[in-house]
Amino acid sequence: MEKEKRDFFLLQRKIFKTRGFEFQYRPGFLKRRFAVRLRARGVTSYRDYAKILDKDPSEYNSLFDALTINITQFFRDPSVYEAFDKQVLPALISTKRRVNRKIIRIWSAGCASGEEPYSIAILLNKVLKERIKNFVVSVWATDIDKDSLAIAKAGIYTHKSLTEVDRNYSSKYFVYTKGKYIVKEDIKRIVRFNRHNFITEEPYTNFDVIFCRNVTIYLTREMQKKLLETFHKCLNKNGYLIIGRSESLLTKGDLFCLVNPEEHIFMKV
Ligand SMILES: C[S@@+](CC[C@H](N)C(=O)[O-])C[C@H]1O[C@@H](n2cnc3c(N)ncnc32)[C@H](O)[C@@H]1O
After folding, report:
1. Which CATH number fits domain 3-67: 1.10.155, 1.10.10, 1.10.1030, 1.10.3470?
2. What is the CA radius of gyration of the chain?
């Protein structure tokens, strides 16, 4: 193997070992993204860049910012949200009422710039209506990418992010001004953004639903399996896990059962 190729391979292996990231991008794309960080740190070889990661672990954050693909949208894959609205939420709310529990906690793991957690909060608001006051409702939204989180916290979007949003929702839950859509306060209030890496950091717990969509493409099968165990621990009894439509985090197993095969919605067993 030529030297540069070998060093690039070793660099990726090191990042996987230390931070759990396996890059499944096309090599050309990956090299262009790494080149940005090499230039920023004033080095010309992968080997020297690996030394920088050892000396200055904060460089991992900058590297991940340069590497992560943060494509997202409000109500991305509308049929998933339809199932959440019509199947998951009514079942969850009726269970909460039956057992007289007032706390509803949802986790958007890998929330990117916030469109996913805000979509969840909009549906909670829509389904619960006035009853929302009777519950303690929160959507925990986490990501490793600080730039995406800054956009998420601001809650200001262009039309491009809202193409799947029902017109009634856009007028009810957003303020439109100067070509921008601003998420209204009663929706923002429900969502809590935090920087968090669900591979390397202690996970949050006691959730009724976890959304982890279009994130696991970065991970090996082994890491996906570990993540599944983590999510199982983080969920309340009979909690739901919702993964991406093109993801196959779960095919079989004794931790979760499928409750909606088309939309990749699972329930903790
Ligand atoms: C393609 S976006 C998906 C956004 C949203 N879930 C959706 O489906 O529209 C993937 C996001 O996952 C985040 N991510 C990747 N690995 C992560 C990790 N280990 N912990 C937290 N976030 C992660 C990335 O930073 C990126 O913002």
Report:
1. 1.10.155
2. 20
